[in-house]
Amino acid sequence: MSGYQLDHLQHLETEAIHLMRECAGEFERPALLFSGGKDSICLLRLAEKAFRPSELPLPLLNVDTGHHFPELNEFRDRRAAQLGARLIVRRVEDAIAQGLAVPAPGEISRNRLQIPTLLAAIEEFRFDCCIGGARRDEEKARAKERFFSFRDRFGQWDPKNQRPEIWNLYNGRLHGGENMRVFPLSNWTELDIWEYIGRERLEVPSIYFSHRRACVRRGGQWLPVSELAPPRPSEEVRELSVRVRTIGDIISTGMLESPATSVGDIIAEVAAARVTERGSRADDRASEAAMEDRKKAGYF
User: Fold this and answer.
1) Cα 71 from Cα 68, distance rounded (Å)
2) Mind listing the pLDDT tens digit for each residue in 59-78?
C-alpha cells in the first residue's frame, strides 16, 4: 500500500507549521507581525493550526504608519478580536512625537519611519523573535533571506552573514538584545497564497476585490485619491474598477484595473500576470536597492 502523499499546498503548510512550532520551542517571547494583509492572514491560519485548541502563545504586532487603508485596519482589529488574540499596535505618529522616528525634510512616505517604530516595539516588549509573512518571490532582497533571519542588537540584517539551514535544523541562539525574524512563507508564491486562501475559505479585506475608487495616473500606475494623496492640478481624476495586489501606504500602493470579485477570479489573474506584485508599489519601484537598504536597517 502506497503512503499518503502531500499535495503542493499541504507540503508548504506542513513546512510553515513546523517553523511556527520551532519558534514557540526556541524563543521565549515571540510575536507574529499581523497587518491584515493576505500574507499575514495566511500566517494567522497557520498559527491556529500549529497551536489550537490552546490559545495562541504569541501576541500579534502591527506597526501603523497612519497611512493605512481604513479597510485594512478595520479588518486587522476585527480579526484579532474574533480569535481572542492580543493585538499590539505601535504607531509611527507616536514614534515621531517621542523623537524615536525623525522624518526627513519633504519626506512623505512613512516606510522608512516604520523601522525605528518596530525596533522600539521589539525593545519595549523584549521580543526575541518576530514572525513575518515575507516571501522569496516578492523581490530580490527578500530572496536572499533565510527562514531564520538573524538581526543584531541594533536590529540590522547582514545578507552576507546568515546562518546555515541544513536538514531543517535552525539555529535560534541569541545574545542579549539580538532577535530573529522568521519567515514561514519563504517558499510560497503569490499564487500559493491565493490558492491557500481559497482552500481554507479565509476572509480577506474588501480592497483585494474589484471596487470603484477615484484614482490618478502617476509614475506609470493608478494611485488612489485620498486626503493624504490629493490629485495634483495637472492630474485627471478617474473613477475606476480596481483592486490591490499588495498593500502598503495609501500614498504609494498602486491599484490594478480588474473585474475580479472572487478568490477564483484573483487566482486566474495572478496565474496570467507578467508583472510582480510589488511592481505596483511606488516605494519599491523608486530603487532596486530600496528594500535591501531598509532591511539592513531593521525593516520587516
Assistant:
1) 8
2) 999 999 998 888 999 999 99
Domain residue ranges of the chain, discontinuous segments joined by + = 8-193+289-297, 205-283
Residue 72: CB atoms within 10 A of its CB come to: 21
pLDDT of 290 above 80? no
Q: Considering only CA atoms, which of 113, 62, 128 is closest in space to residue 297?
A: 113
DSSP per-residue letters across 71-109: HHHHHHHHHHHHHT--EEEEEHHHHHHTTSS-PPTT---
Q: Span 8-193+289-297: which CATH code?
A: 3.40.50.620
In this prediction, what percent of the chain has a pLDDT beyond 90?
57
Q: Which three cell numbers mark 258? A: 480588474
> Can you tell me the distance from the alpha carbon of 15 to that of 12, in angstroms, rounded to the nearest whole number?
5
pLDDT of residue 269: 94
Which residues contact residue 229 at a Cβ distance below 8 angstroms, ignoring those fewer than 6 apart? Answer: 223, 250, 251
Q: What single letter denotes the amino acid at residue 286?
A: A
Q: Rounded to the nearest 5 degrees, what angle is found at the Cα of 142, between the Cα atoms of 193 and 89?
A: 70
Pairing of strands 211-218, 221-224: antiparallel
Query: Could you tell me the three cell numbers for 91?
Result: 504607531
β-pair partners for 89 = 62
Q: Is the pLDDT of residue 277 over 80?
A: no
- Under 8 Å CB-to-CB from 118, ≥6 apart: which residues? 63, 90, 130, 155, 298, 299, 300
Q: Which of 125-134, 278-287, 288-297 has the lowest mean pLDDT?
A: 278-287
